[in-house]
Amino acid sequence: MTTCVLGLGYVGTVVAVTLARRGNDVVGVDIDADKVQLLREGRASFAEPGLDEAIAEVRDRLDATTDTAAALARADVVVICVGTPTGADGRPDLRALDRVTQQLGEGLRQPSETPRTLVLRSTVPPGTSWTRLVPAIEQASGRTHGEGWRLVFSPEFLREGSALADASAPPLTVLGAADPDHAAPYLERLGPAPDSIVHTSFEAAELLKYSSNAFHAMKVAFANEIGALSHSIGVDGREVMDLLCRDTVLNISPAYLRPGNPFGGSCLPKDLRALGSEAAQRGLRLPLLSSILPANDAQLARLTQAVVDTKAQRIGIVGLAFKEDTDDLRHSPMLELVRRLLHDQRELWIHDPRVGAATLRGRNLRAAQLGVPHLDAKLVPRLETLADRCEAVVLARLIDPALAPRLRDRAIIDIAGNDALADLPRYRAIAW
Q1: How many angstroms separate the CA atoms of 116 and 76, rounded?
Q2: Of 4, 81, 245, 267, which is the active-site residue?
Q3: How far apart are CA 348 and CA 315, in angstroms?
Q4: What is the tens place of the pLDDT at every residue in 175-210?
Q5: How much is the pLDDT for 110?
Q6: Does this model's pTM top 0.85?
Q7: Are residues 58 and 25 in contact, defined by beta-carbon separation less than 8 angstroms?
Q8: d(CA 388, CA 383)
Q9: What is the separation of C-alpha 252 from the centre of its chain, rounded to a whole number of angstroms?
Q10: Are 55 and 17 in contact (CB under 8 A)?
Q11: How far apart are CA 420 and CA 414, in angstroms?
């Protein structure tokens, strides 16, 4: 059977050529007759290093047409690469995808001995695959998902200028599906198994694409802002970024990329303010760097609101220092949460084995005293005691899952990742 690629724009053309280079018979489909004719002649409709040469290599296995119905009739794997440009309101324009969806559904009305595997590679908002495409195809085809067809979402991570290399050796192949087995026919077309394959939900795969591009954009903006500040100081910003990237334990690594706790401590807030002050003195506007502290405050506001929403009067806080295995209360988000809840007249109990009122000294002591009178009376040494006294518990630390029965009737707000408690009836996390 043939592999059909719907859409011969940048992604679709590269995907079609890559699949053909791996020994598959491929037919590309586009409503633009010029794109189709160029591909038949052995050329792409856009400039990309090595692409025309790659097309020439696979002309015996790569065809193109404007006849969608005919192409779909020949294919058991259909890769959807139609454009989803941004509209005037910032939302993706999914009209081309809707047209293709209708055509796919109509094509699926025809009986086939082999189930059809539909692979969506267009960038779409989270929820599109399962709540928009699947119902539309079911309605147009008269067949429910899993009966003769199945949908997979696989985000693309192609960079213009190196797209062939990216498609040939992707660092990560992500497959969102209702069942991991649904992706098997598509994986067979990819040839030798990619180094890293991840099966996940439709929504996680869809959101990953947007998250990745936002992260890349943030890195560019960050480097440019540090570069602007470096230049004003007389330092080469490229050297600063090169040195930053050499730390692969904390800087260029998974470190800190975990939703949950806001940041605090003596370093991050202080140094962000210092950078902002340095930039202001030099007349520089650094909007990305200046937005980080407000973004952190917004996470604390979400946490505070989640606690307020429980309507509990007696609240327990597990973890008071800005992070575990320290007693440092400077700029601790949990200490700020305590202040806000005390201001709201809530009764609080706090458990942190590292924090003892009698051992606090200097700035640490002053941080604790500011807005938190009689801290020592609120500290409890045992989690069991805290659980028994409270109606709601905020977990900023991982706790022993054996405590789950004791917390069963409590409202739980988790920002640490206590997955063993997730089945409790009043469990809530604000970042997952």
Answers
A1: 5
A2: 267
A3: 5
A4: 999 999 999 999 999 987 666 899 999 999 999 999
A5: 82
A6: yes
A7: no
A8: 9
A9: 17
A10: yes
A11: 11
- SS3 per-residue string spanning the chain: CEEEEECCCHHHHHHHHHHHHCCCCEEEECCCHHHHHHHHCCCCCCCCCCHHHHHHHCCCCEEEECCHHHHHHHEEEEEECCCCCECCCCCECCHHHHHHHHHHHHHCCCCCCCCEEEEECCCCCCCHHHHHHHHHHHHHHCCCCCCCEEEEECCCCCCCCCHHHHHHCCCCEEEEECCHHHHHHHHHHCCCCCCCEEEECHHHHHHHHHHHHHHHHHHHHHHHHHHHHHHHHCCCHHHHHHHHHCCCCCCCCCCCCCCCCCCCCCCHHHHHHHHHHHHHHCCCCCHHHHCHHHHHHHHHHHHHHHHHHCCCCEEEEECCCCCCCCCCCCCCHHHHHHHHHHHCCCEEEEECCCCCHHHCCHHHHHHHHCCCCCHHHHECCCHHHHHHHCCEEEECCCCCHHHHHHHCCCEEEECCCCHHHCCCCCEEECCC
267 noted as active-site residue: yes
For the chain, give the number of residues: 432
CA distance 230 to 237: 5
Residue 39 burial (C-beta neighbours within 10 Å; 0-12, 13-18, 19+) = buried
pLDDT tens for 338-356 read 999 999 999 999 999 888 7
Token pair belonging to 285: 């506007």
CB atoms within 10 A of CB 42: 14
d(CA 345, CA 184): 57
* Six-digit token string for 384: 């069991």
- Cα separation, 246 vs 234, in Å, equals 22
